[in-house]
Amino acid sequence: MAPNLDAAQQHELADRRAQLRERYLAPSQSRAASSGRGIHHAALICSDPAQTIEFYQGLLGFPLIELVENRDYPGSSHFFFDLGNSTLLGFFDFPGLGLEPGIEAIGSVQHIAISVSPAEHSRLRAKFDEVGISYAGPDRGIEESLYLRDPDGIGIELLRDELMYFGGRWLDDR
After folding, report:
1. What gap in Å lies between CA 152 and CA 137, rounded to an integer?
2. H or E segment at 114?
């Protein structure tokens, strides 16, 4: 979704980004190491575990590695997909709560970017074309990304860049 900004607003926002970079972005050689070890898992909510499993495992090829009852909500499922590199994508369903579909809003997840090999990126793109799954990215001049929505509308980006790369550029030279 592209905002409707005039040239003055675009210039003001570009100036603001420059100020933020100047204030907060330290050169890599003087930047402290992260206190984190990486994302263990992101936890999302789905409406139907079966359709979620068919999408992430069946279509995208991320193996389902666990499916248990949610320890915090009896009757709810909690399950995980292996995204590679010791990273998991987790889901809950909350039957009986009457949850509404999510909307793109402040504080929500806009999309999840998942790195895949260039060969897997090409294979998935051909598969989407073959079965008629719509996606964006190459049509917007972003060849390294395929953007699509899961069955519940969660934004997924399949990115052929390596981890720690963005737009073909290494983000940290440590």
Report:
1. 20
2. strand 112-115
Contact 47, 33 (CB under 8 A): no
Q: Are 53 and 64 in contact (CB under 8 A)?
A: yes
The side-by-side arrangement of strands in the sheet containing 41-45 is 41-45, 88-92, 77-82, 64-69
Alpha-carbon torsion angle 26, 111, 43, 122, nearest 10: -100
Distances (CA, A) of 135 to 10, 105, 126, 143: 27, 21, 11, 12
Q: What is the rounded distance in angstroms from the CA atom of residue 10 to the CA atom of residue 16?
A: 10
Residue 163 has pLDDT above 90, yes or no: no
Q: What is the mean pLDDT of residues 79-100?
A: 94
Q: Calculate what percentage of the chain has a pLDDT beyond 70.
A: 97
For residue 67, the cross-strand partners are 79
Query: What backbone torsions phi and psi does residue 20 show, to the nearest 5 degrees?
Result: -65, -45
pLDDT tens digits, one per residue of 68-87: 999 999 999 999 999 999 99
